[in-house]
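Subject: Sanity check before I submit

Could someone independently write out the structure tokens for this chain? I want to compare against mine line by line before I put it in a report. The sequence has 431 residues.
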Amino acid sequence: MQQGVDFVLSGRYYRSGRLSQHLLWLACGAGVAGLLAFRALIALSPVVGVVAVLANPHLRSVASRYRRNRAAVWAAALVGFLLLSGLYTSEWATWRHELFRSLTWLGVPLAFTLAVPLNARQRLAVGALFVLSVATVGLVTTGQYLRNVAGANEAIRVGQNMQAATGTFHIAFGIMLAQAFFWSLLLRRNPRAGRVLRALLLAAAAGSVLTLHVLAYRTGLLVLYAGLLACVGYLLLRRHLALAVVVLGGLVLGPWLAYSSLHSVQRRVGATIYDVQQYTQGQDINEYSLARRLAAVETAGALIRRHWLLGVGPADAYAAMLHQYTWRDFGLRPQNRINVHNQYLSTLVGGGLVGLALWLALLFGPLLYRPTRRNPFVLVFICTQATAMMVVDILSLQISLNLFVFAYGFLVVAAETDYQISREETAATGA
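---
Independent answer below. Compare away.
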């Protein structure tokens, strides 16, 4: 004990880089906890990450890694575009608020670029903490559903969703559950995962899938099955025909079994079909979530056609949507005139083709570079998020934004940083 105190007080703890590394580890743990339960930690996590950067004793010598990290540069480019949009924005209060929110695009990549990187065991611990925590919260939420099945199914019938037991928004939580399923299976392949941890990870994968189906989370199920379909394509490319057939069988059998055995899934399917019919038949859609989203897509299309290059400005997008509704309101009451629930269309409305190009470069750019396109965790991240963005505007939801940026930093930015370090070490050895 005394030796540990002496190690810290002597300054060797700082000079060894362990202080910076442990602070980054703490920031990651706080980020996971903040995503699921303690919201205040979401704001504190990037701050601790920046402190970890400042605690790096070799900060000056590694500072150039930031500008050479393509993932970090694309994240900074989004902030730069938001700054430039101030030249033509009219919603100044919203613009300032969005600029403040966008600081996470700078802080998180900075931490995973310039702080002392986590070691393999620490990264495994963070990954396991995420998937086990998500699965646990999912099972607790399933337990709440089972205590009042009739009431929960009635809520599903009218288009409502159970929030997570910790209060996490159901759309973001559904995405987390789908990601936890895939990442649990990948983490089990880690040679540092012991027998107990591998068993827990397998249970977490099963629990995540069970929760998604029992609670009938539409977005989460879409992400799950899109990811499985991508797995089939990947396996076929690698010529693992037998395994691809097994996964494809699960793709067909899973939805059929869920619909046949779970009343919640039956109610969700019926409610979804009825919801769409209200829109296509020109009925009153004020109380129907999916119908209002379809109306929002049509409204966004009118704006995109007029402001196709630079958009109306990211901060002005919702105000422009509300103004467009005055020309055609679809019979919606003012409180039911929603923003478009599609990240690609939302980006087109706010940033036009320029903004969309930046966003697509950030999202799919990792597929062009060796250190990230061969990383299965990164591939799962891109596939799940790209799918979710078809039905969710993640930048408008704070929890979805935090989920994306944290995973982007932990997986994509960190993978490029590790690649840079390995090249630096190779060059030094060759010299």
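---
OP: Matches mine. For the report I'm noting this point. Residues 1-62 form one domain.
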